[in-house]
């Protein structure tokens, strides 16, 4: 089992920044992919960013590329999502997710391929 706990959400004005954290526990993560997804009211949960735990290579959705940065701290088993230049359309519940394995061609954006999820943290960007 893997437990994921997100934190760092809140209310921010347009153009502001927030940093989300996802603390993982329960198993080792060397083979994992860690991802961030978000879900706005009335919309499907969508991919935001992912990182391969072992090599640290990041991947981003086009909507956040250049504004968001995903990173990790191996010692703390924690993944971060630094969000800059926030827009009202970034308002959503943000979820951390862990995926047990990855293989070439499988991509990162399919939420059905993630095995564990956190409870989510609300991010609200006011205009």
Description:
The chain has strands spanning 3-7, 10-13, 18-25, 33-39, 46-52, 58-60, 68-73, 78-83, 92-99, 116-117, 121-126. The protein has 127 residues and is an all-beta fold.
Q: Separation of termini?
A: 40 Å
Q: Give helix and strand order, one letter per element, not per position.
A: EEEEEEEEEEE
Helical amount: under 10%
Number of helices: 0
Structural class: mainly beta
Mean pLDDT: 93
Radius of gyration over C-alpha positions, nearest whole angstrom: 14 Å
Number of strands: 11
| Low-confidence sequence ranges | none
Report on the biggest sheet.
Answer: 7 strands, mixed
Please sum up the structure shown:
This protein has no helices and eleven strands. It has strands at 3-7, 10-13, 18-25, 33-39, 46-52, 58-60, 68-73, 78-83, 92-99, 116-117, 121-126.
Keywords:
single chain; 127 residues; mainly beta; seven-stranded mixed sheet; globular
């Amino acid at each position: 089992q893997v437990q994921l706990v997100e934190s760092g959400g809140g209310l921010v004005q347009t153009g502001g920044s927030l940093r989300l954290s996802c603390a993982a526990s329960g198993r080792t993560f060397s083979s994992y992919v860690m991802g961030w997804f978000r879900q706005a009211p009335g919309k499907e949960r969508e991919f935001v960013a992912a990182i391969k735990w072992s090599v640290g290579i990041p991947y981003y959705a086009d909507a956040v590329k250049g504004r968001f940065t995903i990173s990790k701290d191996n010692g703390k088993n924690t993944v971060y999502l630094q969000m800059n230049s926030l827009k009202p359309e970034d308002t959503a519940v943000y979820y951390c997710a862990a995926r047990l394995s990855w293989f070439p061609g499988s991509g990162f954006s399919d939420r059905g391929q993630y095995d564990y999820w956190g409870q989510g943290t609300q991010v609200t960007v006011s205009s």
